Amino acid sequence: MDRSVNNQLMGFQSASRSARTSEGGQCSHSEHWADARARYRHLPLTQYCDSRTVTRKNVWQSTTIRTTLRSSRFGTTHAPRSAGICAVKWTIEGSLLGTPGNPPLERILKNYIDEKDSLAGARLTLLRKGPVELYRAQFLQSTLIAAIPLAPVSDAIREQLRYEYSIRDKLVGGFALRPLRYAVHNQNPALLLDDPGGRLLSELVSEAMTPDEFLRHALQVAMSLSSAHKVGLVHGGLTPSNILVQPADHRTNLTGFRAQGRILALATADGAEYEIDREYLHYVAPESTGRVNRIPDERSDLYSLGCIYFHMLTGEVVFPGLAPWELVHAHVARRPDDDALQNLRHQVGGPIVDLVCRLLAKEPNERYQTAADVVAELVTLRSLYQAKSSPSISRRRPLGLFQSEALLVGRRLEIDLLRRAIHDSGSEKKRSLWLVEGPAGIGKTTLINHLRKDSDGKSFEFAHGKCELEDGFTPYASLFRALNTLSRAALAYPPSQYEQLQRRLRDSLAEESSIITTIFPGLTGLLGEQAHKPAISPQAERSRFLEAIARLLSAFGTPDRPLLLFFDDLQWIDEATLEVVAYVMRSVLCRHVVVVAAMRDRQIEHQGPHVQPFLSTNAVERVPLGPLSEREVGSLLSAVLADSTDSSDTLVSALLRTAGGNPLHTIQLVRSLIADDVMVYDESAGKWNASLTDVEARSNKSNVVELLSARVATLPENSLVAIQYLAILAEPSSVDTVAAAMSVPENLVALALQDALDEQLIELRDGQYAFAHDRVRDSVYLTLSELQRDQKHVEVGVNLRNHVVKNELKTSAFVIAKHLARATLPAADPRRRQFASIIFEAALKAKEATAYESAISYLIDARRFLEDRVNLDGDLLSLIELRLGECEFACMRVAPASERLAAIRTQLLESEHRAELVRLRLAMYVALGQTEQALDIGYRYLAEETGIALSREIEPGSLELEYRRFLELYAGRTADELLALPFMNDDRVRNAMDVMTDLIPAVQFTSKELVEVLILRMINLSLEYGLCDASSYAYICLSFVAGAKFGDYTTTAIFGRVAMRLPKERGLNLYEGRVQMCFGSLSLPWTGPAAEAKQHLEEAAELTGRQGDLTFAVYSRRHIVTNLLFSGGSLSEAQKVAEDGLKLAREARFALVIDAFMAQAWFIRKLRGMPVDISLPDSSVDYAELLADCISGEYQRHIAAFAFWTYRLQASFLWGGRSS
């Protein structure tokens, strides 16, 4: 490429302004842009790599003239300009005085003035009043503009000035006032800007402009705004006093840029106004008020532009004479005055008014989508007005909005049904998922968006989770998008509302916010940062996460303002999110959360196997959407054509027969008919004519995908290639992500995507490119063969991974893994281990997020790359099998998990992982009541891995020998001395301690002496090698031996206190809940009152529940019941705890404790003479039969028979009948 083309390509991406040519002519933004696009279009993207060497300096040098007025330091001079709004000359002994409340300008300006200039005689002109006043300072040979805030200066104003200065490198090319310096005097800031001369637009709008004058100025403002948007800037505060106009040069410059995300703030909790830019209130977009569930973007500037245009045409603001709060409400809810619009139509013509009304649409999707679209429309209108012809261009053009979500016709019954669901939230009615279903393009998403706009008086929070085709097993992909919309909306709340939300979040979540922010780091700003303490087991972590999500959503959904949780394209929802949805629908916490989903009812390709079983339950209320009626198709056609006249009945009937009443199909059909001149606008008759024969001929030859494919085929090759990669990514992606996937420079990717944007095949939202509809993605994806798709998926995965490693690109491990999983590699290919490792990394992240089904899928994909490479990669394969078994056990697939874990070649695992394997198998066998198998693998591991030999048969004197060893190591030390022991450094011993901790529950159901020896051995190892997490658990269990066996309650008390202090003072808190339980059930019964023991047991129940240690959460409740029965506590309280504990034991599938609770329940029933709810099908079941089953051996668990028999003996002793 020649240098001039390079300069143009780079120049227009950095939004270089129209500059005077060497011949003195003018070149507009649109002409520059069109010329550059035309010149790059024929070149393949791979040839653009040379453009990376082009710098902004090159671009700047390519223009022949800079700005008209420059500071003298740039070597140009000029004559002083005329005064603006209010020219005031201050020449008191050579100093510039400040205005009331403002700092003197002398010190701010003096360092910036050249020696040949002087502050003496400087002319200072006030251009703009407001929170930030704008002055023009004219010196002898230079001029500049100073933006100075009124004192006292708020943090928000400081932030705004700093932000505008920080983006100065983007404000090149003449579309904006470029900051020169951020100055501070006596803590008062000021922003000094380059001055190109001219007047503020606010001086020109006091009277209505003529159409010609309006079009001239409107076009220049739109061009400057388009340039700002093209360099990635959102103005965020567009008003007439932020626009500098040079009528003679036909140029405008913008100033007053605000940081994205700055939402209008009006009042504190007590109603006091603050930080109000009153002028901006007349031009603020609805989504910038913070009162609607949308985030401001480029289209917010277009709404402000519409308000400015209205002011230019009428001489008045859109909503005159209103107080600040009334203005905010008007921008959100009111239309411009119909009489004013009607008068305007008579004065300037319908097309100009239509343009302004479209800019003023409340919904961003109903406005023009880019400033470039506004420029194109204004260019056409101006040429037509100059030719004095009837400007009917807006009627000629087909649908300006491709997005069918902007057009809703009919559907009143469905809207009313969903409104009732929102109004009934929190009632006692059965809670359901409301499923809006119908074929693609029927208007499902449109329906929900319309519901958001018109909720019939009942306001609600809104969270939107879009399910993407390639989400697959990416855990919580849809939930993440929904929570992200909630978080962003919350950050836009007024301060008082935001503080109320944070209080609700603190009250609801307590310390559990850490598990949410661990999985969704983006919510840290809302929930705060806390260290996460993982649960004891995978099952526990999952339960804990689901409860935390329910509590989070309950904080957003309140009786006055329920939460509408919407999942679009439910057929593609990931399994982890669907499990959350099911939990939320069951949770009583979420009674003010209304769950709505949209789903295709006919085409369910790639639907996850988990979706259909969920939809088959009675928890789903279906809201089917059928085809439009003929009258509704007519209304849709009028909206598509921007035509207020009635369309021909025969044309409407033909479209209905051809498109079948599908809105998306109808819209695309009309576009194709106009493009092919089958539909033609008759200017003389003022209506559209169509060849009905040609329309009918398409009925069997085209569907939506074919119509869209025809449009896709017209794109330039570079644009097609770029959106093919976007289709491969299959989710909204930023330009840097698309560029990384293609391994092409970002500026070239942005240029390549522009054609697809212009054709409205894709959208740009919040910096993310996405297809305008899933059907567009389908059409693009079909341009690739199956082989090409697989190859591109692998290419994208490799490219993204490389960019993550080299450039620290923030790309999800799940995104990379899903692409690499499609690779087919020869057995000897060394990339097999590399790909398996990358996918294994994604699996571990899914497991950490408690998305165990997703983790299993990734692990299976990773294993596929290594199955025939056992000799080469057996170590990684064994680790994959370990994680597979762990996740299967977490999903309660016990049989396959047991087989898989037993088959692992342990010699290929590292020592840490071998200990994990043993502990996992121990937990599995204990839960199943298979204690003998647990003892076998536990004792074998201790003997082989650590040399700790423990006999299954206790020899006489062995316990006493172990106790004497304990006394030697203990040596009578104080509690403080024991607490100060060093941490354990020997990994071998630490692993052994953890294994023995998990071995104790199995041992205690077989031999009391084995438990005592095991506890003493753990304490001795801790005294000899140092402290670890398991030390506190072993210390608290000393009462089993020292107290009960040897009567040494003093030593028991010392070690009990140390165990209680270790979690808080030494940070050894992994088993804190267990320690509390054992202290209340083992130590205090020997040394303290029962009431105090009960308090510790209740704290243990809460703590183990919060930690997710379900096994000991169940144990704690059983001990509370025992404590109540022992101490003569309330039987009704004992019954409630027993019922809750039994329910929890069933959820944990803890067979041993279920039996024990059943025995307790029987005993309480006997004591109270009334039944206890044990959640059995037959509420009148005879407990004696259950006892008989236990005794007969049917349960095959001795502890069950022991528990029943013990409680039966107690009842017989109390009430007689011992002989029975």
N-to-C CA distance: 103 Å
Rg (C-alpha, Å):
37 Å
CATH superfamily of the largest domain: P-loop containing nucleotide triphosphate hydrolases
Unreliable spans? 1-103, 114-119, 265-275, 389-405, 1172-1183
Number of helices: 52
β-strand number = 18
**What's the helical proportion of residues?**
40-55%
Oligomer: single chain
Number of domains: 7
**What topology, given as strand order, has the largest sheet?**
1-2-3-4-6-5
- CATH topology of the largest domain, by name, is Rossmann fold
Structural class: alpha+beta
Q: How confident overall, as mean pLDDT? A: 77
Strand content: 5-15%
Give a short summary of the structure.
InterPro entries: AAA_16, Hybrid_Histidine_Kinase, Kinase-like_dom_sf, P-loop_NTPase, Prot_kinase_dom. The protein has 1220 residues and is of the alpha+beta class.
What does this structure look like?
This is Protein kinase domain-containing protein. With 1220 residues, the chain is α+β, with helices and mostly antiparallel strands. 53% of the residues lie in helices and 8% in strands. The protein contains 52 helices and 18 strands. It starts with a helix and ends in a 5-residue tail after the last helix.
